[in-house]
Amino acid sequence: MSENSSTSAPAPTSAVPDMAQVMAQMAQMISAAQINSQSNPPTVSVGPPPLFASTDTSSKLDIRVRSKADTAEGSSDTLDKSLTPVRAGSTPASGILLEPVPSEWFQAHPHVSTRVAFYLFHASGTRKTYSSGQRQYIESVRTRPALCTSPGQFLPATTLGILEWVASLGDRALQPKTIKAYLSSVRSLHVDAGLAFDAIESPTVQRLIYGIKRYYGEKPRHPKLPITAAIMEKLSDTAPNVLLQEDMNFGAAYKLAWSGLLRCGEFTVGEKDIFNPAVHLTRDSVYFVPSIDNPSYVQLTLPECKTDPFRKGVSIIIAAVPGSKFCAVTALKAFFTHHPLPSNSPLFARADGRPMTRSFFISTLRSRLQLAGIDTAGYSGQSFRRGAATSAAAAGYSDYEIQMLGRWRSDAYKLYRDVPVDRTLHSSALLHVAAAKPSSNWRKNREEKNSQRMALIRPALQKRKLHIYTNTEYKTSKKGGIYLRRDYVKLIVREWK
Predict the structure, then answer these.
(1) Surface-to-core class of residue 438, CB atoms within 10 Å of its CB (0-12 exposed, 13-18 middle, 19+ buried)
(2) 461 in a domain, yes or no?
(3) Is 274 contained in some domain?
(4) Residue 334 has pLDDT above 50, yes or no
(5) Where do the record's region annotations for Disordered lie (predicted)?
(6) Which residues pair with 308 in a beta bridge?
(7) Which of 94, 302, 340, 374 could make a disulfide contact with 369, Cβ separation 3.0–4.6 Å?
(8) Are 400 and 259 within one domain?
(9) Is 265 found in the same domain as 180?
(10) Residues 18-46, mean pLDDT to the nearest whole number
(11) Which CATH number is 406's domain given?
């Protein structure tokens, strides 16, 4: 019996295998480890083996495998991979398994206990076992052993290896944003393995990406079209049956999405997700103030959102506007009244009781847009959030107010604002109006305003025994006062001595 539970894949005799073969080898090793864990006595790995370590510089890939047998029976490090951890004194939203942890994740992190690997998996909301960037980096280094840290060692990455890999991505005309995302995925490999990632954050790497951006340029952005207030009115007039449950469900959903500047994932359920009242909207998430009979506003509580990864809960206040065709409070009140459901039911559901998914919402939106005579190209679930921000900007809302309504923590809200063409034309026309005014009239008006200001300020200062000096007197006196200087009035006062 060996000192550790590592298993090596046999080296092929021909060319270097592709990534599909590597992943197939990993699956075989995982199956072998599960069989061994039932027959072999528990063993403990000696030292933290390197992540993705290859014992052959050409093609032999050795991935350390750890099963439950690797940990002493009854040890505190043992963690059933199929169970969700339960913490004492936890909040109702804590301990939620965001997504099942693949068994391959534990096999790829043998240098830590299964408990540590479990929480490392949930550290990122976009975690995948092997992302596209990680796959491509590993394949790039495997085919060029000279770029390894040492013979057969893929991690930590070398500066030369990262530079060559980034340059190869640039040759494929990948966007700089995509290259940076790939680098972040490789950086994640280093963080999980407890390795330094200085090569990834090297200034030379950043300059290389900048050079790729300068050479190829950036592809034009094609943001989703905004659903403005005018389109909302048209959608409100296209409801086939205002009392039908699915129609009321969709009507309340899109009106709430627009009024609350919601992201599509905040009020719908993913295709592969299982409805969970702790992370998805329920009937209990809506609170009518002061009552459902005569609400002045509703308080919507998001159990989880993009800016709340720890599920503290985010409250959104949405005012009632009874005279509006797309008032979210009115739509929710009618929906709750005509179709009452238990408080833990999905807030938006289909007629069969299944929660409303993103694809169902978007397909219904496109059919409604077609009924309203609007081309559906360019519209999606994010169009409501973008349209509300655009309408707010057109109404004269300040940047702070738009950022507050949309719960943006950065300047990303500026990407959601589309300045209306008429507003731009109006501002452009005002430039010609301002240029047509003679400068003499402008200066004369300024001098009159300055005289009026002096007349108002003089009595108050004299009452406080403060002296005022005009521009002429100021030149001959060291004491302060009000004096004219071209187009403005400057106030300098000093107490009378």
Answers:
(1) exposed
(2) yes
(3) yes
(4) yes
(5) 34-87
(6) 305
(7) 374
(8) yes
(9) no
(10) 43
(11) 1.10.443.10
Q: Based on the fold, state whether residues 72 and 164 are members of the same structural domain.
A: yes
Tokens of 157: 């990455």
User: What is the average per-residue pLDDT within 171-193?
Assistant: 86
Query: Could you tell me if 173 and 233 lie in one domain?
Result: no
pLDDT at 153: 76
pLDDT category at 155 given cuts 50, 70, 90 is confident
Provide the domain count of the chain: 3
pLDDT at 92 over 80: no
Whether the per-residue pLDDT at 262 is higher than 70: the answer is yes
For residue 38, pLDDT over 70 is answered with no
Range of the domain at 446: 439-491
Same domain, 390 and 479: no
Whether residue 497 is contained in a domain is answered as no
User: Quick one: pLDDT at residue 430?
Assistant: 60
| Residue 286: per-residue pLDDT | 94
Q: Which tokens go with 269?
A: 């359920």
